[in-house]
Design goal:
It contains 24 helices and 10 strands. It is α/β, with parallel strands linked by helices. Helix 14 packs antiparallel against helix 17, helix 15 packs antiparallel against helix 16 and helix 15 packs parallel to helix 17. The two termini are about 40 Å apart. Keywords: Cytoplasm, DNA-binding, Phosphoprotein, Transcription, Transcription regulation, Two-component regulatory system.
Length: about 525
């Protein structure tokens, strides 16, 4: 929608234009004019849906402008800005179909509420009742989503939105609780939803506060707002202690009914207008779940800071790399476990850093171990996908389990020796994967018929010859894309793909993204 602001007072006009986050109110274009003549010209050009105009202006006053606007576009909503001595002007303006008025000095919160109401009137006129109710639900969902994503920071917009959609007024105190259902990497969405719905019900029906509100984000987190008209009550340590006990009791109740547990972070006390700060505090407290594990509940602590920086760890450990190259993985399981236990004790790194390090370790395993079977490579790809999709749901122990389980699988799989003939085939492939490789060429190299070679290859490697070669090439290509600046088509040729389009097609199928997208991702 478009809004035209008309006032001959520069300070008032600029204050209205710049003092309110109009974008958050779905007002995409804001136009200003310093008098009625200029306003009429701009109105004719832009045809805004809402006009906010002063009454007393030189040249053309607000009432004359109102008449002209209604002649050109009758459906435009005009709001009159008026002083306390303008009663007769106001009476005439209402007769001329002004939709409402706002008294000077202008109060931003009152003006925001008025604009929202007028905007909804416009939308209602364009829709059936059913469509309008659907719009209101959609607008509420959009407000919730944008609020929890941190995209709405204007205190007036937040206050107005919480009051309109959730009945939260500005009086009294507020505490914010950020929670997350403790899902695993293989938990289905129905199980998570059932636990979240039960937790919301427990919270909203609780007698802990005078008003409890549960907001759910698209990312799967829950936000509870605990409202009380008595700030001192919310601020007391006794109440925070009661809240902690209640949250722990709800955790036990969820688990007793076969539901998943949850973790939570509790903000400090604040006013409703300080929602953004309290929401950030609650999320910061919740971030301790990474180290404390599932089912943990934390109160905001000023000292909580996690570094969002790269971790090298085992990636730079020469002895670890040497043992990997030898293929004797069993003794290294303890090394990996100790590495993650040490990271857990340090409590230094952010979730993003831990997730990136875990993925880098998995990719490192694939590249450094020359004989990694294709089924193990596929297993690693799946675990990397889990981290990409569910990183926010994982605790440190989950990241450790992913790496250790991968290591154990690789150790078990590599302990099964290939037959001498397939070992020769594998050595030939790894030495010549940059060249054109065919079943006929390999079968001739090992002294078999093509059909029998294909059968034996799939039986021992778990995948077809073509897929095995493609996986090896893509793994090598991925390493070059991440660690070099070579042109993508050159990388494709280097790893054995003469056709760049085919290279990108195979790459996207195996990696879930194109080489271009991978190249654009930040490097750690």
């Amino acid at each position: 929608m478009k809004l035209l602001i008309v006032d001959d007072d520069d300070q008032i006009r600029t204050g209205i234009e710049q003092g309110i986050d109009w974008h958050a109110l779905d007002i995409e274009i804001v136009i200003t004019a310093s008098n009625g003549v200029e306003a009429l010209q701009k109105f004719t050009e832009m045809l805004p849906e809402i006009v906010l105009t002063d009454v007393r202006m030189p040249g053309m006053d607000g009432l004359t402008l109102l008449k002209q606007i209604k002649r050109i576009r009758p459906q435009t909503k005009v709001i009159i800005l008026s002083g306390y001595n303008d009663f007769e002007y106001l009476k005439t303006a209402i007769q001329l179909d002004a939709v409402d008025y706002e008294m000077k000095p202008i109060r931003a919160r009152s003006l925001v509420a008025l604009i929202k109401r007028v905007k909804e009137e416009i939308i209602r006129e364009q829709m059936t009742e059913q469509e309008f109710n659907k719009y209101l639900e959609s607008y509420k969902a959009s407000f919730r989503s944008e609020l929890l994503a941190g995209n709405i920071t204007d205190r007036l917009i937040i206050l107005e939105g919480l009051q309109q959609h959730y009945g939260v007024d500005a009086a009294g105190g507020l505490i914010c609780v950020a929670a997350r259902i403790d899902e695993d990497w293989n938990t289905n969405i129905e199980t998570v939803t059932a636990a979240a719905e039960m937790l919301c019900h427990l919270f909203e029906s609780s007698e802990l506060t005078e008003k409890g509100i549960c907001l759910r984000s698209k990312e799967g987190s829950l936000v509870f707002l605990l409202k009380s008209e008595t700030p001192s009550f919310l601020y007391s340590r006794q109440w925070v202690s009661e809240l902690l006990n209640q949250l722990r009791a709800w955790n036990r109740e969820l688990q007793s009914q076969g539901k998943l547990s949850f973790s939570a972070g509790i903000s400090s006390y604040g006013n409703v207008s300080e929602f953004v700060e309290m929401y950030n505090e609650a999320n910061q407290a919740l971030s301790l779940r990474l180290y404390e594990g599932k089912g943990s509940i934390h109160v905001k602590d000023e000292t909580m800071e996690f570094a969002d920086e790269p971790i090298t760890g085992l990636l730079d450990h020469a002895k670890f790399k040497a043992q990997l190259l030898q293929g004797d993985l069993a003794p290294l399981v303890d090394v990996v476990q100790n590495e993650f236990e040490q990271l857990k004790l340090e409590r230094k790194y952010s979730r993003k850093s831990i997730a990136t390090y875990t993925k880098n370790l998995l990719q490192f395993f694939m590249v450094i171990i020359r004989n990694a079977p294709s089924d193990v490579v596929e297993y690693i790809y799946k675990k990397i996908a889990v981290i990409d999709e569910r990183s926010e749901a994982l605790a440190m122990d989950d990241f450790k389990k992913i790496v250790v389980s991968t290591f154990e699988k690789m150790s078990m799989r590599l302990s099964r020796e290939l037959s001498p003939v397939m070992t020769r085939a594998d050595e030939f492939i790894r030495k010549n994967y940059t060249q054109e490789l065919t079943v006929e060429k390999l079968s001739e190299h090992v002294g078999m018929t093509p059909n029998y070679f294909s059968h034996r290859f799939k039986r021992e490697f778990g995948v077809s010859f073509k897929e095995y070669v493609n996986r090896l090439r893509i793994a090598k290509a991925k390493e070059l894309i991440i660690h070099t600046n070579e042109l993508l088509y050159v990388i494709g040729e280097k790893v054995g793909f003469s056709d760049y389009m085919y290279f990108t097609q195979v790459f996207k199928k195996m990696e879930g993204c194109s080489p271009v997208v991978l190249r654009k991702q930040p490097k750690h």
